[in-house]
Amino acid sequence: MQTRIDLNADVGEGLGNEAELMPFISSCNIACGGHAGDMETMTAVSRLAKKHGVKIGAHPSFPDKDHFGRKAIDMPSVALYTSIKNQIKDLIRILEAEHLHLHHVKPHGALYNLAAVDEKIAQVIIEVMKCLMLRVHLYVPYNSVIAKLAIENRIPIMYEAFADRNYNADLTLVSRSDSKALISDSDIMVEHVFNMISTEKVKTITGEFQQIKADTFCVHGDNPEAYSLILNLTKQLNAKGIQII
Q1: 3-class SS of residue 87
Q2: What pLDDT was estimated at residue 6?
Q3: Which conformational region is residue 164 in: left (phi greater than 0), alpha (psi within -120 to 50 degrees), or beta?
Q4: Is 214 in contact with 5 (CB distance < 8 Å)?
């Protein structure tokens, strides 16, 4: 069983809770203007991450602040490629000015979910990684289309699972339109994560267990209860001998 895991959170998304979260996470995904965030917030959050020794990732999305990047947008591949590339480059410029480096890229919302199953969308993200010559990790779902493409293109990956989301039998996330999409009970969350760590299986919404692998676990930073959920998760995992690194 793994005894050390990465715990990440999406940040810079407008809640202003980053100072609370940073001491308890080991990596963060900074919104870089697509669904949320601007140069000012990216700078402030990057400095907080530096203060707490938290690894920094870019969190690009469909360019759609109106729907917080959670709605799939039908746009030409070239336009999507340009948007994702520019979002990541904006964050990289800030990190360079702050003498920091980019650790990973993690797509956001609908872009993330589509890249897991849609080869066309996944390929756009892969091409951005190749164009920017980013030898950084790509956070991807286990056994997903984008994971397979990244491996084929020799892009380093970290498998990601969600601490605060329920899964369908095919390992896609339960839609946010479903009342059972989110896990809001902190003890259930701990059980959910510990099962994935200790057995490499996840209990799906139908009650069956499916194989899953995860190097990093995400708690959504835009959840108003994110601080208390992460605090309890960290305490309980540490008590079970699992370190957050």
Answers
A1: helix
A2: 98
A3: alpha
A4: yes
CA separation for the pair 239, 22 (Å, rounded):
20
- Residue keyed to tokens 């589509």: 114
- C-alpha 201/C-alpha 230 separation (Å) is 21
Per-residue buried b or exposed e for 166-189, using 16+ beta carbons within 10 Å of the residue's own CB: bbeeebebbeeeeeeebbeebeeb
Structure tokens at 213: 């692998």
Alpha carbon dihedral 112, 100, 7, 19, in 10-degree steps, equals -100
Give tens-digit pLDDT for 88-138: 999 999 999 999 999 999 999 999 999 999 999 999 999 999 999 888 999
List the structure tokens of 34. Answer: 């697509």
What tokens does 15 get?
């809640």
* Euclidean distance between CA atoms 65 and 39, whole angstroms: 15
